Structure of Aminopeptidase NAALADL1:
Amino acid sequence: MNSNKLVYIGSIVSIAIVLFIGGLLIGRFAIPRSSNTIDTYNLSIVNQRTEEERKIIWNNLKQQFLNLVNAQEIEKNLYNFTRHTHLAGTDDDRNEAESIATKWREYGLDVTIHPYDVLLSYPNPIQPNIISIRDQNNNSIFQSNGNELMFNEDDKSLPFNNIVRPFLAYTPNGTVQSRKLFYINYCTTDDFQFIETIIDKNDLNGSIIICRFGKIFRGNKIGNAEKYGIIGVILYSDPIDFARNSTRSNSTYPNSIYMPDMGQQRGSALILSGDPLTKHYPAKDYMYRVPIDNNPWLPKIVAQQIGYKEAREILIRMTGISVLSNWTGGLDQVNYVYGGLLLDDLSIQISSYNTLQIRRIHHVIGTITGHIEPDRYVLIGAHFDAWNFGAIDDGSGIAVNHELVRVFRTLVRSNWKPRRSLMFCAWTAEEYGIVGSMEFVEEYAKILGSRVVSYLNMDVAVTGSELMIMEMSPLLYDFAIKISKQVKAPYVNETIYEQWIRINNGNHNVGEKFFTMGLSAISDFAGFNQIVGSSNIAMTYLNKSDLKNAGAYPLYHTQYETFRLVKKFVDPEFQAHQAIARVIGLSALTLTDIDLLPYNPARYHQALVSLLNLTKSIAPKSINFTSLQNAIDQFKIVADQFNQRIQTTLDKSNPIQLRIVNDQLMQLERAFQNPLGSSIEQADLKHTIYAPSRTNRYNARGFPSITDAIEDHNITNIQQQISIVTYFIHSAISVLHQPNKIQATS
Ligand SMILES: [Ca+2]
Ligand SMILES: [Zn+2]
């Protein structure tokens, strides 16, 4: 970063502080009125205060907020949440929605409940899905258990009879059998391309494959396998990724956070966000549903997970060439091979009994109405469905969400009123593939599209306490840094910002290290990024070792995600939960109360520059990027002019002027949205700068349509997609121009 930029950012920050205070004053000294009227009276009160007075009031409010966030309350919330199982579409799920609604009503929120009828997937409650190895006479010589195991340390008062067995949601039922078995590492596209150099790719046709969880979204693994005519997929968590220290019982659960030998990650295999029967439209009773047969979004081949103890039984019966070292896992006395025919004429069989069912789900939304701009929404969300007890995914988010409701209501009772409306969202059916929140986004696409300022997501909010990482729109980069300087890190005497610098060996460029620009399809922000077009943020407190594994903690989606796990190993004093609550809460407090939105368009320029460099580096040399480069250069000039105009000419006491500028800031991210989507197949991915990668939904891909075309080696389409992205950057430029006329372009 050059020094000019530092000065510039510093001045933006100081202006933002002044603007902050103005916004807060409006909140603090409002005369109580009906919550539905727009309160212009208090604007004159604001103008009577000195800057010094405003600063004191803001600092007091901020301190009051930070002090109110209570670790014991969060612990209590998590304990209560984890007494039950939470599978979407079940009685547990409906009861949880009712209990959240009741709790939030008691706190005084204006609560609405939003039902949808969506396609979900369940294993057979009586007959587990089984993988077996069979001899020449088709007698089973080994059979998987179909369950995880319980331990003496598990809390027997929990309803373990209600837990859902390991299964891969939406994979079809049926029995498949093959004498050919291949090991394909993590089943990434690269892994498949590599194995084509080792074996004849036609050999994969009719085979069953085994691969390990990790690196990419599990649905993409199964999707990759379908393309090769593979008939069944077996997934397992290799100890090298999930039991890193040792597979001995004293190194794994219940004695540590690492995967025991029968532990299994559940999860969805849907390569779509939302209900697969009502793509683009809400799953309401009036809506047409596409037939389930040949539905293009549902996985087509049988797939099932097993414990690594069971995977070992399979891997030792394989034949073929030994794999390269980066394909080798950590199972004792296993020679990892690429595969081929099984030893001794054995065959392998997968039997799955999954069913698809349309079930009703309910979201809970609780609102504190804004008193100056009630039609501008800041949303905080977490999902309450879970594969089982869900202590981390997403008990951590739900427990924090409840605490924030309590704290914000306490502020309201002490006469604080937010400028904008603050909405708390409790989503369900997230685990099935963002099915729930996407339906809500689809139903209210138009009003959310024009009214949502930012969506703040908490999913797997705490898996450790060493380091906070964030995913966000580049517009929120400087804002996130500012908030991180005001919140104490857990278990150490430093702020989150100071912790980043320490971990980054004193280097202050922490955003580049710990922030991911753009958001993927990994959680409920998906609909807000791709359909709503708001500028969003999500964060997680984790242990540094979790970074290696695509963010997945070892016991992710197992039945061992219990209160005991969190209390004993993850966050004993709930200080990491408290830090997340403070960061999300302070962000929400600011975004609902500040008069001028704290978005910095110049950061988007930096993000565009780094994406352009990355894209150029993977593109064929013949590709011409001049038009895109010029648009990005022009974006910088216009973004700087915009920031300059705010500093010099904006009259912050004029509510109309303020609204005009805020609308421009809100429209900036929306200007990048292509209503047609990135392709006919991916019409739901509308953000032209960042969208989930088609090869890994866990990753946000920059310039997704250009990158896809580069991967396809389609020169004409690459050039076409560059022109389309150039157009959307020009759209963003036009948003930042003075809005009093339409600027002509050359
Ligand atoms: Ca839908
Ligand atoms: Zn989750």
User: Anything to note?
Assistant: The pocket of zinc ion (ligand 2) is lined by residues 383, 393-394, 430, 459-460, 523 (CB under 6 Å).
